[in-house]
Structures are given as structure tokens and as C-alpha cells.
Amino acid sequence: MKIALDAMGGDYAPQEILRGAVLAKRALDVDLILVGKRAVIEQELHALETTDMLGLPEFEIVDAPDVIEFDQNPSSVKERRGASIRVIAELVKHQHADACLTMGHTGAGIIASLITFGRLGNVLRPCVGIPYFGLQPETLLVDAGAMVDCKPEYLVQFAKMGAIYMEKIHGIARPTVGLMTNGREDNKGNELTRTTFALLKNSGLNFIGNLEGYDLPNGTTNVVVMDGLWGNVALKLTEGLSEQLLTRLSKRFAEAGLAQAVQTIMNDFHVMMDYTRIGAIPVFGVDGLMLIGHGRSRAAAVVGGVKSTLYALQVDLLEALRAGLSEPEPVL
Question: I need a labelling partner for 245 at 20 to 30 A (CA). Which of 41, 53, 273, 299 fits?
């Protein structure tokens, strides 16, 4: 299997992306195409080779002279055909690669995959779903930030794609689906969630009803549906809160002379809440396979992203999404 890897995407690109590519190539049965500024990639690979006793594996390099930075408008990818995040999608479209992976700009990745692959079946809008860290790895939050202005029919499709993902990737038969709002009663929420609730009841999904905020960390359901605005807030709030709690706990334990005694436990919690361990998640709703990892990914997380991409190919996630989205949408 061949994966096009965006060597320029991420806070620590290209050094950590290329280090991860080397590790992934050695550990996994995968061909990687490195996409980005050729001169920069070759220079960094040469620098790695001088300190690597094993010698570097061979890589195909595809030149992409442009990079969409995190502070740039993601819509600019429409005109910037030479951007690395656009080129990796083009390689998949033209069957030079089976899937593509980036640790770069999420918004640009979604737009690049949409304009390159087109929409999948009757999908109205693409989205992304993210497992809820190691805290609840079998809970998928969708949408996680791609679509902030939603309609009820969008949320129903998000739920359907999330359920297919949890079944194929996590092996969960008939994943449960819940709708995030401000109370468990059927009539809670705003007009968007109340209408979505009625549609989900008729969707054929294993819908268990409305959820409240505490249901997310408690792992009440396998798929938690909300618009991308609140989904992204929920994820970033969890990241920030966990970092603060772990930092303060570590400080208090140190002050009490207990740092050594609880170090193993604290390390376990750090690993559990480490967002880079998620690997990468696919863009749902496009007719091609692009996976996006965390922007702060280092080499180990890049390896995880490659593993995620390989597994999505092995279980034929895209074909499962095609089949699942060919069914008619529910109506009131």
C-alpha cells in the first residue's frame, strides 16, 4: 500500500515528519511518498542520514513548492495547486497513492480533499470525527471542527459516518449514537438539536437520545454528534483542562514529597490524555481517503498516523462509507 505523506505539514515539519516517515518505513509494510519542497526534504534526509547508524530507507519524493501555514486562510488551497496538502490529494486522485496523510492545516486538508475527491454519494457536507483521547477511546466526537454552521440533515449524516467509522475501525457492532445538547429530555436544546433529534429517531441508527456535557468523558455512547463549533470547543477544553490538572497535581505532589511515589500513576495519566496518540482521523464525506493528524505531532505521532491510514485502507473504510451513505435519508 502506498501513502502520500505531507512532509511540510505540522508545527515540527519537516524534521519530525521525516523522522516519523523513517520510523514508519522501517516498522510497517508501507510505501511512503514524501511530498513537499524537494530541496528541503533532501537536505533534512541527508542530515538524518549522518546521525543514523542503520542508513535511511529509500523514499519517492514529489516536489510541492508551496505550504499552507496554520495562520493562513484554508480557502486559499483552492488556488494554490502547488501546496503540499493539495498535491497529496492529487496523488490519490490520479492513483499514484492509495491514501494521503497530513499533520498540517485541518481546514485546508478538508477543502483540498473536497475539491480534489468530490463529495461521497449524497453527502451534503464533509466533517471530521475524533476519538475522545485515551480517556474514552471508543467514543467518537463528530463534528470536531470542520462544519460550524450546521443543518439537521448534516448532523444526521455526521452520525451515520461516525457510526460506520466506529464499526469498521473499532469493531463495534451497532455503535450507539447520542446527540449533544443541554439536557437529556427529548425536548431539550435549540431548534437545530430538536429537529435533529426527530430525524435521528427515524434514521435506523442505534440512537439512544440526547446527551449532556458530562456524558462525553463518561463514555456514555460510541458516537457523540454536535456541530463543529461546539465539538472543537469540547476537544480544546478537554486538552487545556487535562494539561492544567496534571501540571497542578504534579506540583502539589512534589511539594508534599510524593513525586517519586506517584510518578508512574502520573505518567499513565499523561499518556492517556496525550492527543498525539490518536494518530490520524479521516475526512468523512469525501470520495477519497485523506487522514489528518494533530498539528503538534512529533515523529512517534507520525508513525501513529501512518498506522491509522494503513488500517483504514486494510478495512476498506471508504467503501464502507460509500455503501452506508447510499441509503435514503430520514424524513420527519
Answer: 299
Q: How far is CA 16 from the centre of its chain?
A: 18
Residue 330 confidence (pLDDT) above 70: no
CA 236 to chain centroid: 14
- Indicate the CATH number for domain 1-123+285-316: 3.40.718.10
End-to-end CA, the chain: 43
pTM, to two decimals: 0.91
Return the SS3 of 191: helix
**Positive or negative, the Cα torsion across 173, 102, 299, 97?**
positive
Evaluate whether 106 touches 87 at the Cβ level (below 8 Å): no
Burial class (CB in 10 A: 0-12, 13-18, 19+), 332: exposed
The answer to whether 180 touches 142, Cβ cutoff 8 Å, is no
Q: CA-to-CA distance for 312 and 39, rounded, in angstroms?
A: 31
Q: CATH: 3.40.1190.20, 2.60.120.650, 3.40.718.10, 3.40.50.2300. Which one for 124-277? A: 3.40.718.10
Which pLDDT does position 85 carry in this prediction? 98
CATH 3.40.718.10 maps onto the chain at 1-123+285-316, 124-277
For cell 549522518, name the residue.
Answer: 50
Lowest mean pLDDT among 27-36, 151-160, 220-229, 238-247: 238-247
